[in-house]
């Protein structure tokens, strides 16, 4: 069974691309068959770090967006899609254009929407809108990004959180990596494996930065693996 993981969150700067890169690196390290699609054309961080495994996707073009489903149907594997900010309408248009949710069910392909959040009002409101639109037609994973915020009470106490639980959705926390190290990783455009293990060359991390990155990845993987068959 193939699984499509749509990594979104609507709001810019909440860490969607970080989650997409972590999930991509997890698939590589755990030897899970996968393909990656980078729909965030303005940043392209997934393609930049994992060009060997990913391809750009243009959500404004149905033919391009169809590559998401094509890659899921080509083999039993995970397809990781890094969505740009403010892409809900484009995603909805694509899903409606070919009744993609029904098609996926009939083809045995599961779709999971990951909502990456900084716990703020706008992020919680955006998630509520997604739940309003798709209800129980999708699987959901809400990601509390501790690298962007530490107080998630607005999310925890929200109606969206209650509805997520009712739909059988899951919640994980993405642990924080100190900002200087994350900045160095993002600036280098390296894969997370390279950032954690390679100590030579321009832009490489210092020894303790690499150590912290390895520990951070281990904690990220623990969070992902707590999801069981959702992922």
Question: How would you portray this structure in words?
Answer:
The protein has helices at residues 16-29, 45-49, 62-74, 88-97, 100-107, 121-134, 153-156, 159-166, 179-188, 192-197, 207-225, and strands at residues 2-8, 34-38, 54-56, 78-82, 109-117, 139-145, 170-174. It is α/β, with parallel strands linked by helices and 231 residues long. It has a single domain (2-177), classed as Rossmann fold (3-Layer(aba) Sandwich). Strands 3-2-4-1-5-6-7 form a 7-stranded parallel sheet, sandwiched between helices. Helix 6 links the parallel strand 5 (109-117) and strand 6 (139-145). Helix 6 (121-134) packs parallel to helix 8. It is globular and about 50 Å long.
Q: Strand order of the main beta sheet, please?
A: 3-2-4-1-5-6-7
User: Would you tell me the overall average pLDDT?
Assistant: 95
Number of domains: 1
- The H-and-E topology, N to C, reads as EHEHEHEHHEHEHHEHHH
What class, by secondary structure content? alpha/beta
Radius of gyration: 17 Å
Shape: globular
Strand content: 15-25%
CATH architecture: 3-Layer(aba) Sandwich
- The CATH C-level name is Alpha Beta
Low-confidence stretches: none
- The end-to-end distance, rounded to whole angstroms, is 12 Å
Tell me the CATH superfamily. P-loop containing nucleotide triphosphate hydrolases
Enumerate how many helices there are, as a single number: 11
Essential attributes:
18% strand; single chain; 48% helix; Rossmann fold; globular; alpha/beta; 231 residues; 7 strands
């Amino acid at each position: 069974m193939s699984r499509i993981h749509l990594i979104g969150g609507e709001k810019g700067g909440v860490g969607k691309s970080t989650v997409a890169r972590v999930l991509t690196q997890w698939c590589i390290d755990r030897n899970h068959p996968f393909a990656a699609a980078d729909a965030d054309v303005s940043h392209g961080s997934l393609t930049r770090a994992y060009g060997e495994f990913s391809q750009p996707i243009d959500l404004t073009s149905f033919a391009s967006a169809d590559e998401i489903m094509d890659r899921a149907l080509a083999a039993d594997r995970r397809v990781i899609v890094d969505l740009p900010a403010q892409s809900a309408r484009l995603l909805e248009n694509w899903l409606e254009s070919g009744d993609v949710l029904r098609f996926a069910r009939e083809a045995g392909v599961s779709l999971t929407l990951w909502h990456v959040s900084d716990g703020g009002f706008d992020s919680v409101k955006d998630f509520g809108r997604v739940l309003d639109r798709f209800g129980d037609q999708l699987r959901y994973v809400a990601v509390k990004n501790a690298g962007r915020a530490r107080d998630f009470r607005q999310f925890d106490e929200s109606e969206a959180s209650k509805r997520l639980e009712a739909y059988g959705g899951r919640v994980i926390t993405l642990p924080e990596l100190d900002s200087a190290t994350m900045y160095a990783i993002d600036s280098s455009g390296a894969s997370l494996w390279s950032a954690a293990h390679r100590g030579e060359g321009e832009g490489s991390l210092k020894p303790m930065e690499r150590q912290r990155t390895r520990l951070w990845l281990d904690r990220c993987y623990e969070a992902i693996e707590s999801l069981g068959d959702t992922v």
